[in-house]
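Deliverable D5.2: sample structural annotation.
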Amino acid sequence: MVLARRWAIASLAALQKAAPDLFVAPTAATVSFDGKKYVVTDGAAGEGLDVEAVSAALQQAFSAGVDDVVIEPAVLPVEPATTTAMADAAAERLNGMLAEIGFYVGDERTVPVSAKTAASWLTLDTDDAGEIVVTADAAKIQTAVDDLVGEIDQEAVDGTVVTNAAGDVLRTVVAGQDGRVLGDVSGVATAFAAQLAEGDAVYTLPVAVTPQATTELARLLEVDLGAQRLYLKENGKVVDTWLISSGRPGAVTFPGRYSIGWKTPSQDMAGTARDSGKKYTQEDVPWVMYFNGNQAFHGAYWHNNFGNVMSAGCVNMPPAKAKVIYDWSPEGTDVWIHS
């Protein structure tokens, strides 16, 4: 296909030279950078003799031994060496490169390259078949490579997460970050230039990675109904404790293993007490965290008798303490209620 196109272009050029008055020169399509992206200037067909008809007539005359031959071939449109379709394909390929060009660490484009800078690295030419050929200037790329160390190297940052006993991450306290050190970049500019010429704009840098360490804090809210006390535990160790009031006889707080579900900073509570059958309404209950149906941890501003059973089934405590566990316990935190 390419050889046939080159032959046609060469034959057309020969005829144009021999009989220039019979031709209107075509205009080749071009691709250029407009400051943001590559754009196409459409080509335009010219007019000229039918090259294949001329060739066939001459071959027939030569075969017949005729010295003189009169040829009246049709005038046909003459496509430019670089057609609009060829330019469109090249621009699409180049703009795809601009969209992803940069220096990568793994799958992360750590150092993007602006479209304007990338275009300054590239030169567009055409080959004998009119195809647009891309070359890249390694010396210009080297300028960007020289600045890479400060943009790539980073210290490892150890992370901290809150989990439940199953190891599910419930909250990130400190986001960890792997450390990395840029390796030898002496051949990067040349290698990237070669990649760009082939249409590959993703350069993966040589980097040594130091993995972050992650500290897991398995948190547990443990309620001892007999002692009327709440324990905040991290990785099995008590980090804080205080008195609470759980459910009265006949409206007990049910023992069991649960987890924190829905949370709200404030809520009006209403219901029917299981022990007395009386309806109750309590407005603006603070720092509510449900763990078993309608049983919840929350603050209680209406009494100060903590250490004794007082509630209709919830676990209540001073509002300031309820705020502490509200902030400390993400949804999914383990809860253990026992006697």
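Annotation notes: Residues 11 and 153 are 58 Å apart (CA to CA). The first strand starts at residue 30 and ends at 33.
The annotation will be released with the project's public dataset once the embargo ends.
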